[in-house]
Design brief:
The protein has 402 residues and is mostly helical. Helix content is 70%, strand content 1%. It contains 21 helices and two strands. It has a two-stranded antiparallel sheet with strand order 1-2.
Length: 402
Amino acid sequence: MSSSLAENLARFRKARNLSQEELAAAASVGVDTVGRIERGDRRTTRPATIAKLARVLAVTPDALSGLMPVAHAGYDGEIARLRQAITASAEIPGLDDLTDTDDVSDRPSLAMASHAAWRAYVDGRHSDLLHALPILLTDARRLVHATTGDANAAAQRLLSTAYRLCAGIAGRLDMDDLAWTAAERALAAARGSDDPEIDSAISLRYLVWTLIKQGRTAEAERVAVKAAEEIEPRMLDRDVTRAGVFGNLLFNAANAALRSGNGVRADDLLAVARSAAVRAGRDNATEAAIFGPRVAALQTVDHAVRLGDPETALRLAEGIPEPRGPVPPFWEAGHRLHLAHAAALLRRDQQATKLLGEARDIAPDWVQRQPLGIMVMRDMVDRATRRRGRPFADLAAHYGVL
């Protein structure tokens, strides 16, 4: 979303930790000129003046003027390769090269590569993941093409995992249609795997997430609840994987219900998920699910923020249990982004800044792509009435305010 020259100049200047006087001196323009532009008193500004100011602020003149978004480091080449790998198909003449069986990886090696890609996903290492996924997907498709029987079912499970990771990263990068394609293909592979019930439920979770991102919240809740009912653990069932998949589906269903405006329904769904987490007894993070007592508590706090109750969210955060097992960095970072939002709503900017810094330190690559963190940082920069120092400016730069 673009802004006016007045808004952008003030925002970029504060994000660079510059006073009006310092900016004016560095750009060789009058300080009154800077002041009038920021106040919106000047209806027109010479292109040469805009160019001088943009040079000091290290942005393009168009970005400063609000004619185009500020450019961020992207993954254009990696995304093109990912798209090619996801959409390749033996059913389409000319796109079947990925099923070449001249060089087929063995299943143990492919399983190790799959786990490494999943680690990159949960750690928020997008560059590593985007580099690894096209290779992983190609190798998994080749193994499926080259095997039969039980070996083929095991290969289908690996292929389903690869497609799910593709759906996840595509969704994170706001390529919702590509995420949907990858999730659909993950579901198709899951149905031919050696554990079709669990793998299908996991794949449906990614489809639900994509539906939510597309704004199809009623459909998302319906699909998630139906899938959860089919995978629900039986009484005294201590299957950690089943409980985790069940709980994650309910998290998604609650999120969809909340976005549909049904907070009571979302509360009920989260309550069932928390009960399953208590029964699970410990936190766990695997390719199948991320679930447990701390994970459920984080989700409950984030839910309060989404409901527009920041005071309750910050109070609940004080009682979150310590992790009893692994909790991925992007979950912890995302939780801090929600708390930062809650603190900012209450004008506790010092606390919000601290939380944004913690999120950045936990998952630096991941947070740069999160609209919530960017929004909170931008709002704090906009309402800053004085310079807040170099650490604040560095944080603003990391969250893409510049």
